[in-house]
Amino acid sequence: MYDHLLDGKDNFSADRAACDHLLRQVPSMKALALNNRAFLQRIVRVLAEDHGIRQFIDHGSGLPTQDNVHQIAQRVDASSRVVYVDTDPIVRSVGGALLETDDRTAVLQADMRDTERIFGSEQVERLIDFGEPVAALFVSVLHCIPDADEPVELIRRVRDRLAAGSVMVICQLVSESPAVREDVSAFMDRETQGHWGRVRTRADVEGYFRDNGLRPLEPGLVEVSRWRPEAEPAAPPQLSFEWEEFGGAGFVP
Ligand SMILES: C[S@@+](CC[C@H](N)C(=O)[O-])C[C@H]1O[C@@H](n2cnc3c(N)ncnc32)[C@H](O)[C@@H]1O
Question: How many CA atoms lie within 13 A of 202 on its CB side?
Fold first, then answer.
């Protein structure tokens, strides 16, 4: 569904029908997806160009689109290494064929909550040097897990494995309206047959960083199209964001 919202080609008629239904209910979803993807692409380039990051672990990577993390990072330095992690078997099969174009990029089918398995995997052991800084990405994915799975603890488990100077990139769907939080969470829960977590608040996302001692890079935590914008964001068909992707990047101390 996300691939279809991004005008990608790797989706099925069932995905397209579900998106049509979703967009009738939440028309801002497409602009939100486009702006989120543009944020991911900007932040990877900034980390590679300005902060010398050469290793990336992308949790909940999704299907490959036009400009993926490894392409952006390898344009800055061809030796950059990327491990994509996603629980969706379609990402493993389609993504594997499209993304594993070189021996510096790998796709791992795993649940991002299974930190032990991810960090012990052949792909991570082969490509990631934990003596050097790593960027761990959680872009538009923490709303896929419920509170019971403790997103703050998940971030901590990953942070604890990273060298000082590493960076964690985190954003998720938030709303400051309790009604929107409840409605959207219930709607998405139904649409995804329970494979859904929760729309949270800006304060929740701020807690992911603060409670884990992550020091935010400029401009701090923001609606993602405001993170160092380079072009006009895709405009949602409403006047205001009733929900948004909110987050940023923070250094591991
Ligand atoms: C909205 S997409 C985000 C894709 C990409 N990070 C981006 O921002 O462009 C969410 C992705 O997270 C994946 N996902 C959801 N829950 C997951 C989990 N528990 N572990 C790993 N991946 C998960 C989904 O399969 C989907 O590909």
Answer: 12
The rounded distance, in Å, linking the Cα atoms of 20 and 49 is 38
pLDDT digits (tens, 9 = 90+) for 163-209: 999 999 999 999 999 988 988 888 878 877 877 889 999 999 999 99
CA-to-CA distance for 224 and 100, rounded, in angstroms?
A: 28
The residue whose two tokens read 């995804």 is 192
Helix (H, G, I), strand (E, B) or coil at 213: coil
CA distance 147 to 181: 14
Residue nearest to atom 25 of ligand 1 (CA): 88
Residue 1 parent element (H or E): none
Atom 2 of ligand 1, residue of closest alpha carbon:
62
Q: Is 74 in the pocket of ligand 1 (CB under 6 A)?
A: no
pTM surpassing 0.85? yes
Residue nearest atom 4 of ligand 1, based on CA coordinates: 62
Cβ neighbours of residue 75 closer than 8 Å, sequence gap 6 or more: none
Query: From the CB of 140, is ligand 1 less than 6 Å away?
Result: yes
CA of 85 to the centre of ligand 1 (A): 8
